[in-house]
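We were asked to recover a plausible sequence for a given structure. The inputs and outputs are reproduced exactly as logged, with field labels preserved.

PROBLEM: sequence recovery
POSITIONS: 353
GIVEN STRUCTURE:
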C-alpha cells in the first residue's frame, strides 16, 4: 500500500462499521427469543465458523496465502484478546443489572476514548491533534444518539462496571492492533472460537441455553457478517491506520445502526439524529485528513508481513521481479524521509526535530 493507500484503509474501517451497524437492529429482534449471553456466543461462533469456511475455500482456490500466519510469539496478545472479549460482555451485563439501560448506552461510547488513551499511553501510538478533534466530535455525536433522558443519568457501581467493560474493549482493540500485520482471517477465527465458546460457557451458568433453531441459524449468519467480516476489515484498517484512528471511523457504527433502525422499524427521524449525523460527518472528515507529514527515520529491521514495492518503504529487489502484494522475510535498511503517514507498523520511530 503506497502513501495514499490509507484511503483504502479508511474504506475498510467504514465497511467494518457498516457491517457491525447491521447487528444492532437485528440483534434487537433476536433478543426476544435468546438471552444476551447466548446471543453473544452464537454471534462470535458465527464469525469463527464463517471465516474458517472462507479461509478454507480461499486456500483451495489460491493455494498459498500472502498473509503471515500467527506465530508463537503472538501468544500473549492472542490470549489477552480472547480473554478481554469474554470479560467485557460479563462486565457489561453486570453493569446493566445495576444501572439503567440509558446509563449503560451513554457510557458505552467511552470505548473509543479508552482505545485512544490506551494506544497513546500503553502502546505509544502517535495521535495527532486533528485526530483528537475527530475523536471528540464522533464521541459527542454517539452520545447524542444514545440520550433519551439526560435527567436520568447517574453514576453508580453499575456505571463503573460499564466503564471497565469499555476499558476491556479498548485494550482488546490495541491487542488486535499488535496482530494486524498477521493473517486477518486467522485472527477472526481465533477470536470467534475463543470468545464464542467462552460466552457459551457463561450463558450455560447464567441463563441457560434456551432458544429455537431459527434464532440459532439467524444469529450464526448475523455473526458471520456483522462480526466475522466486520472484524476482518477492522484488522485490515488497523494495519495501516493504527488503533486510535480505526476506532474513530468504527464509531460511526451506532449512526449506521440508527439509520437501519429508521428504515426497518420506521422510527422517527428526529432533529437530534440529524444533528448527530452532521457532527459525525465533520468528525469523519477530521479523521480522514488526520495524517501528518514530517522528517522521520526508520531503524534497520528484519521482519515478515504483506507488502508492496511501490510504498516507499520496501526497496529490496527480487529475481525475477515481483509485482503486487506478497509476503516473505525481508530486511529494511535504515531510512530517513518525509511523507504523509498514519500510525502503521512502519512508523514507530523517534521524530526528527
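RECOVERED SEQUENCE:
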Amino acid at each position: 500500500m503506497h502513501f495514499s493507500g490509507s484511503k483504502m484503509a479508511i474504506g475498510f474501517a467504514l465497511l467494518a462499521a457498516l457491517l457491525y451497524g447491521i447487528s444492532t437492529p437485528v440483534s434487537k429482534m433476536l433478543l426476544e427469543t435468546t438471552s444476551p449471553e447466548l446471543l453473544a456466543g452464537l454471534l462470535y461462533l458465527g464469525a469463527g465458523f464463517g471465516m474458517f469456511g472462507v479461509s478454507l475455500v480461499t486456500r483451495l482456490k489460491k493455494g498459498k496465502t500472502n498473509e503471515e500466519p500467527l506465530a508463537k510469539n503472538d501468544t500473549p496478545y492472542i490470549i489477552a484478546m480472547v480473554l478481554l472479549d469474554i470479560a467485557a460482555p460479563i462486565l457489561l451485563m453486570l453493569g446493566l443489572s445495576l444501572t439503567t439501560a440509558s446509563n449503560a448506552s451513554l457510557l458505552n461510547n467511552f470505548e473509543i476514548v479508552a482505545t485512544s488513551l490506551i494506544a497513546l499511553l500503553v502502546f505509544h501510538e502517535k495521535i495527532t491533534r486533528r485526530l483528537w478533534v475527530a475523536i471528540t466530535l464522533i464521541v459527542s455525536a454517539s452520545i447524542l444518539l444514545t440520550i433519551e433522558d439526560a435527567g436520568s443519568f447517574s453514576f453508580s457501581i453499575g456505571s463503573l462496571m460499564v466503564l471497565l467493560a469499555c476499558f476491556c474493549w479498548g485494550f482488546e482493540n490495541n491487542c488486535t492492533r499488535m496482530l494486524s500485520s498477521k493473517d486477518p482471517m486467522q485472527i477472526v477465527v481465533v477470536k470467534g472460537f475463543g470468545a464464542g465458546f467462552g460466552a457459551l460457557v457463561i450463558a450455560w451458568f447464567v441463563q441457560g441455553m434456551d432458544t429455537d433453531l431459527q434464532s440459532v441459524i439467524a444469529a450464526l449468519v448475523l455473526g458471520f457478517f456483522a462480526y466475522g467480516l466486520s472484524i476482518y476489515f477492522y484488522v485490515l484498517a488497523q494495519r495501516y491506520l493504527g488503533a486510535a484512528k480505526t476506532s474513530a471511523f468504527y464509531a460511526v457504527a451506532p449512526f449506521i445502526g440508527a439509520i437501519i433502525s429508521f428504515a426497518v422499524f420506521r422510527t422517527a427521524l428526529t432533529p437530534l439524529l440529524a444533528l448527530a449525523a452532521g457532527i459525525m460527518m465533520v468528525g469523519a472528515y477530521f479523521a480522514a485528513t488526520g495524517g501528518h507529514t514530517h522528517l522521520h527515520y526508520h531503524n534497520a529491521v528484519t521482519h515478515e508481513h504483506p507488502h508492496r514495492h511501490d510504498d516507499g518503504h520496501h526497496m529490496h529487489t527480487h529475481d525475477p521481479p515481483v509485482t503486487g502484494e506478497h509476503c516473505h522475510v525481508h530486511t529494511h535498511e535504515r531510512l530517513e524521509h518525509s511523507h504523509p503517514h498514519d500510525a502503521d507498523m512502519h512508523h514507530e520511530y523517534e521524530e526528527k526535530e
